[in-house]
Amino acid sequence: MRTRRVQAASMGISESRQKQVYLISLINKGRVVAKGKLVTTDSQREILGAKLGPKYCGVLVEGLENIELGNIIDEEVPRPSNQIRTLIDAIGYVIPWPITHVKQARSSSCTRNKLVPAARGQS
């Protein structure tokens, strides 16, 4: 199955309502590994050919974080596809990420000190 870039706006949340979020590493506890936008928490939404389910959300990956702090390991995504196996591959794509490992930035000037859990209940 060929993967294509999905416009986040086509996933159900207008671009102005998408929240800036950070993806937290699945292997290095607490380490921010990427930034993006929360696109959906609808457990029935299909992303990369599979339904999200109750423990995942859809995130548009915009770039990697903390590269200067040694984040040089390209973390694998939890649900790889033919073309998306790591976070570097996922830049520009909407991917499923565990909701427990997504933190919302409090303001548009996103910093590591201003992280809060991502809101549930968005579609």
Describe, in plain words, how this protein is organized in 3D.
Residues 21-91 form the Transposase Tnp1/En/Spm-like domain. This is Transposase Tnp1/En/Spm-like domain-containing protein. The chain is mainly beta and 123 residues long. The protein is 3% helix and 33% strand. The protein has one domain. A 6-stranded antiparallel beta sheet has the order 6-5-2-1-7-8. It has a two-stranded antiparallel sheet with strand order 3-4. The chain is globular, with a radius of gyration of 13 Å.
How do you describe this structure in short?
Helix content is 3%, strand content 33%. With 123 residues, it is mainly beta. InterPro entries: Transposase_23.
Secondary structure elements and their pairing?
Layout: E1 19-24, E2 32-40, E3 46-47, E4 50-51, E5 56-64, H1 87-90, E6 94-98, E7 102-105, E8 115-117
Antiparallel strand pairs: 1-2, 1-7, 2-5, 3-4, 5-6, 7-8
InterPro entries: Transposase_23
Pfam family, one: Transposase_23
Organism: Zea mays (Maize)
